[in-house]
Amino acid sequence: MVGFVAFFLVPTIRGVYLSFTEYSVLGDPTWIGTKNYTAILADELFWNAMAVTLQYVGLNIGFQTVIALGLALLMHRVAKSTLIRGALLLPFLVANVIVALLWFWMLDYQLGIVNEIINWFGLPRIAFFGSEQWAIPTIAGVNVWRHMGYTALLIFAGLQSIPSHVYEVASLDGASPTRTFWSITMPLLRPVLVLVLVVTVIGSFQVFDTVAVTTGGGPINASRVIQMYIYQKAFGESDFGYASALSVILFVILALVAFIQMKFLKGNESDLD
Amino acid sequence: MTTSALSRKTSAKTAHRKPRKPFSWRRAGAWTLVVVAVVVTVAPFLWMLRTALSSNAALASNASNLLPADFSLGAFKRVLGLQTPEEAIAEGGSGAAINFWLYLRNSIIFATVTTAGQVFFSAMAAYAFSRLRWPGRNVVFGLFLATMMVPPIFTALPNFLMIKNLGLLNSFAGLALPFLFMTPFAIFFLRQFFLSMSREVEEAAMLDGAKHVRIFFQIVLPNAAAPLATLALLTFIGQWNEYFWPLLVGQDESVRVLTVGLGVFKSQSPQGAPDWSGLMAATLIAALPVLLLFIAFGKRVVNSIGFSGIK
Fold this sequence. Notes:
- The complex is a heterodimer.
- By secondary structure, chain A is mainly alpha-helical.
- Chain A contains twelve helices and two strands; from the N terminus they run αββααααααααααα.
- Chain A is globular, with a radius of gyration of 22 Å.
- Chain A starts with a helix and ends in a 9-residue tail after the last helix.
- By secondary structure, chain B is mainly alpha-helical.
- Chain B has 16 helices and no strands.
- Chain B is globular and about 75 Å long.
């Protein structure tokens, strides 16, 4: 209980307080009202970080959800073995840093195996981490690879909780597999999908490790996601007040996203009842 | 819920076995997709091993050979500190040092201490939330759940300042403290189990005059061994992989953990021609404890993922 108050509750309140101050760690925080926030609104780097983060979140969630749903269906229908599930989960268990370094090597411009393969097909090499247009899609791809098995397992667990008699009725009625999928599986899976989406969207807004190890936010500003920007403001420029204000904004965005997803997709209700 | 899911699973299995399904293109296609997915997942790890077993100098000319180029254990020796800088440079290493054994020790200390603390304190809190009746219990629990939403970066900055003010930067205490007590997730996870435990044994013990402390240690904890072990496993893996907080608080050599060490090792090596085989050897060894844990307890991890997501 003490730990909760000391390391969750107090920091949360203090974080909000600091966002209204100018604080460089050396002196004491001085109250400056909403100056940080107005500065942020006029901060081009902030808007750039927002745009980059949104691009990342969109790519990451889009591909991850579709692939994971496919994998979950495959696991449910075809391959139930724990070994296969385990193999798909493997990347999720390895540290972000390790995954990032592994792909940094495989996607290397000169010697990486992926570029070797691309070259073998007679196509030009791609500077995955080194070019402005590829940096974010590449980082998103790496993280999709890391998380797809985990997300698939969550959805798989949801699929298993759909009672089989619903399917029996559908097949008696002569519904096609596609029809069954869209009118039975998807609606009944909704609570699980909402949960998965909320968790993964919140997670992917906070991407940091992969960016920090591979591109460090570059080239230029191409992959400086919002958490990277907060980190650089706080620990690069010792501007803790500004960084706190940035994280308050991130927090508000995340809370809104979660709230909207819950409402919009009616995550708390199940059609089974 | 677990038993019903289990029985459903077994009945589905036996129903599957009886009529051996005839060959169909749909099925073959589906299996092909499964194989592709597994290959895409596993192949990079094999590539990591292949690179680690190559000599760095030979990688440049044999980038696409499937077998190790110029098979050598040099990269592993380099990472484990068994090679002199001269030998390393001769093999195409950068001479950049990674104090592997020290980082390994630090990672073990950090992950073990935080896991033990988190599981123990979370169990106590979960006990209070599920078995004790006290005013405001549900309100406080709601507050707990709400904090699951707070992004770690948000508490990281104030926590960093607090650790700094306490003079605990670059100490194990500073590294471990924010993780030591509890996480809302762990409490949520354990509470579900505690709620399903029968009250009878507990009430009998109470009639015999046992106090809450005794009930907790002698009845609740032993009975919850399986979920506690699962939680410990998940927490350990998570802590072993933690990067952001140790990066902020534990930059000093003496407390630097493996994940942070790998990042530093990468940034030390030259931009143009990094020591790829050394780097891959290091990542492989750093991933090893998790891989071993997974081989030993894989089934438990896989099954608990479904549970943790869906309750």
